[in-house]
Amino acid sequence: MDKQAERLQKVIAHSGVTSRRKAETMILEGKVKVNGKVVKELGVKVTSNDSVEVNGIPLEKEKSVYYMLYKPRGVISSVQDEKDRRVVLDLMPEVTERVYPIGRLDYDTSGLLLLTNDGEFANMLMHPSQKIDKVYVAKVKGIPSPEELKQLKRGVMIDGHKCKAVYTKLMSADRKKNTSLVQIILHEGRNRQVRKMMESIQYPVQKLKRERFGFLTLEGLQPGAHRKLTPEEVHRIKKEYKEK
What we know:
Elements lengths: L5 E2 H7 L5 H9 L3 E3 L2 E2 L6 E2 L5 E3 L2 E2 L7 E6 L28 E2 L7 E8 L2 H8 L7 E8 L4 H9 L1 E3 L2 E3 L3 E8 L4 E8 L6 H8 L4 E9 L2 E2 L8 E3 L2 H10 L4
Parallel strand pairs: 9-15
Antiparallel strand pairs: 1-4, 2-3, 2-5, 5-6, 7-9, 7-17, 8-9, 10-14, 10-15, 11-12, 13-14, 15-16
Family: Belongs to the pseudouridine synthase RsuA family.
Enzyme class: isomerase
GO molecular function, one term: RNA binding
């Protein structure tokens, strides 16, 4: 796999030296060197092969960590929020590394979220060429017909983009309450995609949960809980989803 290039300020921030904003200031002030040369531009990208110095001190690469979180509803998939709402890192107070989410789950969606400080790993999983199953279960108002669910596989237009489900299934239906549970598998991860796709066929989502990401499931985790990925899981992900 090719080494992924990342913005210099992001690399400095992930090393734990300072925040990304302060890193940008230090770059502009000429306090950062890449491979022995002073860099004063914010657009510079580096890989793990490059040597970076901040104030004359070589950057030590932070040990890579990989977590799975069962994100509950009412939590932001971000490391900070300007409206001071709860964010995923509030659920992981003992984690000292500067981890960040791989992709997002919206505020009202619960389920499996991965977090890491390994930029190459995150970029690999979010690369458009990957065909990673993201399995969702949606509680919707109404009971869609098989033909309507097939429409989601054929594709619907969302925000000017044709979105397709890989798989759809009506799991159960409550005719008294006029609600149903629908399983949807996507390869994409656009903003509020499941909700918008279901709305496009007139079945608004009342509750939404991501139950699986690739081969990873939430088994053994309660909402709000997290665990480290095992070395075997990390190795399998890198082997199965190495960048194409």
